[in-house]
Each structure stands twice: as structure tokens, then as C-alpha cells.
Design goal:
Elements lengths: L7 E4 L2 E4 L4 E2 L12 E6 L2 E6 H10 L7 E5 L12 E5 H5 L12 H10 L5 H8 L3 H9 L3
Helix pairs in contact: 4-5
Amino acid sequence: MEQNELEVYEYNGYSITKDGTVRNQNGKVMSVSDGQISLTIHGKKRRRLAGRIVWAAINGRELTAKEVLVYRDGNRDNISYDNLEVLQRKKYFSGCEWPTLRKLNKEKQREILVKSDRLSIQELAAEYKCCDQTIRKVLRGTY
């Protein structure tokens, strides 16, 4: 889809579309790295979370201190508006909508316990892509 077919929103002189494309005043597409983007705002260079910029431009306001931005697919580089969701901070941190942040869910923890008799802590950590300390916590039951 070409940019002229998308609705364009403004944020401090930058043009933003719902697909997450951010263009500077000269039309150059700004790159997103690790979920962040570098912008010049009021003459000063600023590094901001790109998803927050897209959300603010489209909604016409910044997030409040009581709100948190969630990336539905978990990828902070995917700043498409459809991938962004705002939750109340209290609800988000209460755990009722936060189960996916733990790297090892209950099923993976059970697998680790079963495999721990034949694999070392380092081998388990490599297999589950986490650190040794996380495996130790699972084995102690404190994770």
C-alpha cells in the first residue's frame, strides 16, 4: 500500500501512518531499533519508544502515567497501530493480563523438572534460552 493511500498523522513535525511508518520533515523514513526511534523535538535529539510515538500521533495525546503500552505480538519493532494496545497500569501489573512476560510458563517449568535428572543446568538454560539462575529458581520452586 502506498503512503498516499494511508491516513497520515502528525507528531512534532513528523508524519506517521497506521502501519508504523515514521517520516521526518524531508520525507525520510526513520528507522526503529530495539523498539526505539531517534527524533529531533524542539531542536533537541531525543530517543523515544517508537510505539508510543505512533500511538500518541494517532490518538492525539500522550499516554498518561496510569497507562502502559503493550505490543500484542510481543515485538517492540512492530509499531503498526494494530499491534499496539493500551492497558491501565494497575490492571497490567496485577498479573491478569501479564502472563506472557514470564519466559517459562508452568508447562515449560514442568519439562525442566523432568529433564533435570539427565541434563545439566547449563544445557537446560541453552535449550530454554534463559540464564542458569532462572533454571536454578525453577528447580528450587522459587521462579
